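Box 3.1 A note on notation
Throughout this textbook, protein chains are presented in two layers. The first layer is the amino acid sequence; the second is a token string describing backbone geometry. Keep the layers aligned when reading.
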Amino acid sequence: MRKSNEEWNWLDSNKQLFLQSVLLKKQGFEHGFFTKASQNKSPKELVSSFNENFSVHSVKQIHHSNLIKASKTLKVQLPEADGLISDQKGQSLWVYSADCIPALFGDPESGIVAATHAGWRGLVKGILYKTIDKLESFGARRNKLAIALGPAISRANYQVEASIIEEIYGSIYRRVNLNDLNHDQKIDHLINLGIIKSDKSPNKVLLDIRIAAAHQLYESGINSKQISVCPYCTFSSKSLFNSWRRDQVKAIQWSSIASSF
């Protein structure tokens, strides 16, 4: 079931259904988080939902933390990366996901945008930190950024190995001496933040990757008013989104933001 609210709106353009972040839209950014209904459409077909004159840029995603300039994607073979940053006007940046986070960034002063794909591995490898640093190097200001974290798997449906807790904690508190807290204290801290929850299975926890991502952004100097987190879970919203965890089938949905300034 789909509903709009004060932070997220559903749109239908050129017969394509997608979500928009009110935060990004108010800052003037054309963008969208598409549903499973568009999974067999290419970005070149979907871009007309915004502006058919935008150039189209995507990558071969590898669950790492590589970021590249959008202009470097205009090759016969797609480069391997998990994030794109605009380096010209009129570029639409595209990432695909099923349970991982599609994260869209925009600087309303410069018009520079970025799009990344972040699962727990990408978060641990620091893709969000690198994206913000890269945006700043291109002239964006981190205290002006608007960031939307799109549909992703929710904590209730995302069971992971408890062994990754140290990595998740360390990825958020990079400047903190990890020896300041013992393992159990780190678990308690992440539970209190809502990032993890105990699971009935031994050596497992439930992980909320979007809350973990938000806390990485806070640690990067981003405040909560700069971030919009989509309420939809890809696993439980079966009619709207594909989910690898639910279906064990490789299927995706596209997300995009354009540098139209």
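The mean pLDDT is 94. The chain has two domains: 8-152+223-259, 159-207.
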